[in-house]
Design brief:
heterodimer; A: about 280 residues; alpha/beta; Aldehyde Dehydrogenase, Chain A, domain 1; five-stranded parallel sheet; 10 helices; 12 strands; B: about 500 residues; Aldehyde Dehydrogenase, Chain A, domain 2; 2 domains; seven-stranded mixed sheet; about 15% strand; disordered N terminus
């Protein structure tokens, strides 16, 4: 009998697959209780490195045309669809039923296609020209905020992560995400799909590790301009307290969020992480 | 403005030896006083406005509101404590049951009435605003009061069109909103806060700043005259503890604050454990950027308006002037000439350009920061104008030779103090402009439309004015990036901050 080659799971940061700078890992067991792999236990230093990578990728990603961002998000949807079987098997291995796993993976690729379609449309709905009472062409447009911290729910591990990341990058933000602590492996696979989806390195950075170690740094890192998190009450308070120090924008996914419902994908999830800029342009000779 | 534009077009070539005469009227003639004399109809004492009635504060305490122009007492203002704030929220909750159920078109008509009744009493309110806050009468008369009325008029029309606010989603009012506003545009900030909240169907507990409560309480009379249901608008007055009680009250589902970044952060921390929605309109340190192709005379007018409007008590004041090096000397010379003609003094005088600093406390803060500018080595220019002997006044001040590390280039001064820096390239201008924790506004002066749009794209600021400055409109959303806060006020975007999506 041939011995299978096991994969070393590495999170995707700055366009590369990394181990934690600390060298720490934690053992991950599958649903049957068998050892699966060692997962990097990322530190706040890893988080800071990821923020740096995201900040570097930011201006280039924001300057991509909306059409191009749409195509890349669509391509990511294609990648997820192409590796559908592998993703389903993984979700099953970590406890999902076959039908629930299929439903989650399909919802992920559909969600990516949904937001791919918004990239060149949200501006037309969210922005507008303002009829000011003076001789100015006054218009309000959106701009991405910058680097956004995402903290994904533990379940559904894959769909929750995809649902929080997609609307944030659709508008040109870049992301540093902490993936599910209890079920990190689907996110490791997602990283591999991100790497093959034409998404520039550093636009989405995924960290594995422990909430209690990383949440305080998410809260206080001043280069994170916003936080989108699916966390409990104690972490919410930590994040809000830290956010006050640099007037960060914070949005929480409710604990009752039905990630599969149509309401979990929304134009207003894009709106949460854009800034509105209003320009007064003179009219006249 | 039109005169200046035509001046630009005038042939500048003159025969040698005959320089243009400099006309500095301020040095040649004394202006006769031209005070605005309309009766501000002030009451000697103002109570709290709760549940549609004026009620005495539980503590029985009142504090004096001072006219900063002459340090005389203007009126006594009720000092609300936690019990008063409780009563205000109870009234607002009762009011919500009525107000939120009214058809939008009926709510609209109430809000239209506010606009009209304010227009009817515009001059009276302008005088009261100037006496209470120290701003020049020409500003309160031509800007604050009409703009406040315009905000009510604009938002009134939204009340029955809310299905167009958030395409794809239905909107619903939030409930009772707690609001705390600053002293720089007392009535106008109140309008900015009340109008969208009311249009959406929310009810309100609002606290004006302790130095400028008079026009808010006069406005309560208008709310009464408009026949509003009891408890829709509740006004509590007092100091910081009253404001904290308003923002931290458990019945407030949303809080809106306009004020300093420092206080904004304190509020954000104090609300960290709650689910209250927030909007924050905080400080700024705006760059006003002048390129070498700008119409310089017009730009100088804009620079003056940008920093000396309302004594510089403007969160979006153009307090950092960035001048393209080729024109830096010319701009600074023109600026100094222009500043020599500014009239500082009695805010009620119709000729006054720069009125009184809002409070002694603020005057002290300005003096400290100006002293730091001198100490750190920047060159200070102040015109030799006479200041009144009583009241709080500060000369218009321009610092040149300022570097990015100087406190006067980094900290919000909130006074008539301009810091001048220079740049060589567009990229350098952008970098300097964005090198701040703030991001409220910016100004760009250039003749080139494409450069305006380029700059507007690069500047991290919520409002960008091109060849103008300090322009406002109810239809135009206002608010900041970064530590200048979040949420918008005005326009369609501002309305969304006062509703929930259902």
């Amino acid at each position: 009998m041939r011995l299978p080659i096991t994969k070393t799971p590495k999170p995707y940061v700055g366009g590369a697959f990394i181990r934690s700078e600390s060298g720490r890992t934690f053992p991950l067991k599958d649903a049957a209780g068998n050892f699966f792999a060692h997962i990097p236990q990322c530190t706040r230093k890893d988080l800071r490195n990821a923020v740096e990578a995201a900040a570097k990728a930011g201006p280039g990603w924001a300057k991509r045309t909306a059409y191009n961002r749409g195509q890349i998000l669509y391509r990511l949807g294609e990648m997820v669809e192409a590796r559908r079987t592998e993703l389903i098997d993984t979700l099953v291995r970590f406890g999902a039923t076959k039908s629930a796993a299929a439903k989650e993976v399909d919802a992920c690729s559909d969600r990516l296609v949904y937001y791919a379609g918004w990239t060149d449309k949200y501006e037309q709905v969210l922005g507008n020209v303002n009829p000011v009472a003076s001789s100015h062409f006054n218009f309000t447009v959106t701009e991405p905020m910058g680097v956004i911290g995402v903290i994904a729910p533990d379940a559904p591990a894959l769909l929750g992560l995809v649902s929080l990341i997609a609307p944030v990058i659709a508008s040109g933000n870049t992301v540093v995400a902490e993936v599910s602590e209890t079920n990190p492996y689907p996110a490791i696979l997602l990283g591999e799909m991100l790497a093959t989806s034409d998404l520039p390195g550093g636009v989405v950075n995924l960290l594995t590790g422990f909430r209690k170690e990383l949440v305080p740094t998410f809260a206080t890192h001043t280069h994170l301009r916003g936080i989108s998190a699916a966390v409990g009450e104690a972490d919410r308070k930590t994040l809000r307290l830290g956010a006050a120090e640099s007037v960060k924008r914070v949005h929480f996914a409710g604990e009752a969020t039905d990630w599969f419902s149509a309401k979990a994908q929304d134009l207003y999830a894009i709106r949460d992480f854009v800034e509105f800029k209003t320009t007064w342009h003179p009219v006249g000779a | 403005m039109s005169i200046l534009t035509s001046e630009n077009k005038r042939p500048t070539k003159r025969s040698a030896g005959r320089p243009l005469p400099e006309l500095i009227f301020g040095d040649l003639w004394e202006f006769d006083p031209a005070p605005e004399t309309a009766d501000p109809k002030l009451k000697p004492r103002y109570d709290l406005f709760i549940g549609g009635r004026f009620v005495a504060p539980v503590s029985g305490k009142y504090f004096d509101s001072i006219n900063p122009a002459n340090e005389t007492k203007l009126a006594e203002i009720a000092q609300a404590n936690a019990a008063d704030v409780d009563a205000a929220y109870a009234a607002a909750q009762k009011g919500f049951a009525v107000w939120s159920k009214l058809p939008g078109k009926e709510r609209a008509k109430y809000i239209y009435r506010l606009a009209r009744l304010l227009q009817d009493r515009a001059r009276e309110f302008a005088v009261a605003e100037t006496m209470d806050g120290g701003k020049p009468i020409k500003e309160s008369r031509d800007f604050d009061v009409p703009m406040a009325a315009a905000h009510f008029f604009y938002h009134a029309g939204w009340a029955d069109k809310l299905e167009y606010v958030a395409p794809g989603r239905k909107v619903a009012p939030l409930g009772v909103v707690g609001q705390v506003i600053p002293w720089n545009f007392p009535l106008l900030m109140m309008a900015w806060k009340l109008a969208p909240a009311l249009a959406m169907g929310n009810t309100i507990v609002i606290k004006p700043a302790e130095t400028t409560s008079v026009t808010a309480l006069k406005f309560a009379e208008i709310v009464q005259d408009a026949g509003f249901p009891a408890g829709v608008v509740n006004i509590v007055t007092g100091f910081g503890d009253t404001g904290a009680a308003v923002l931290n009250h458990p019945a407030a589902v949303k809080v809106a604050f306009t004020g300093s970044t420092e206080v904004g952060k304190i509020i954000m921390r104090s609300l960290a454990g709650t689910d209250k929605k927030m909007t924050m309109e905080l400080g700024g340190k705006a760059a006003n950027i002048v390129f070498d192709d700008a119409p310089l005379d017009q730009a100088v007018e804009g620079i003056v308006n940008g920093i000396f409007f309302n004594q510089g008590h403007v969160c979006c004041a153009g307090s950092r002037l960035l001048v393209h090096e080729p024109v830096a000397a010319a701009v600074l010379a023109k600026l100094k000439t222009r500043i020599r003609t500014l009239r500082v003094g009695d805010p009620l005088d119709k000729n006054t350009d720069i009125g009184a600093i809002n409070s002694r406390e603020q005057l002290t803060r300005i003096e400290k920061l100006v002293a730091s500018g001198v100490k750190e080595g920047a060159d200070m220019f102040q015109p030799a104008c006479k200041l009144p002997t009583k009241g709080y006044y500060f000369r218009p001040t321009v610092f040149s030779g300022v570097s990015m590390s100087h406190r006067i280039a980094r900290e919000e001064i909130f006074g008539p103090v301009l810091s001048v820096l220079t740049f060589r390239t567009l990229d350098e201008a952008v970098e300097k402009a964005n090198n701040t924790a703030y991001g409220l506004s910016a100004g760009v002066w250039t003749d080139k439309g494409s450069r305006i749009l380029k700059m507007s794209t690069e500047l991290k600021a919520g409002v960008v004015w091109a060849n103008t400055y300090n322009k406002f409109d109810p239809t135009s959303p206002f608010g900041g990036y970064k530590e200048s806060g979040f949420g918008r006020e005005g326009g369609r975007q501002g309305l969304l901050d006062y509703c929930k999506l259902v």
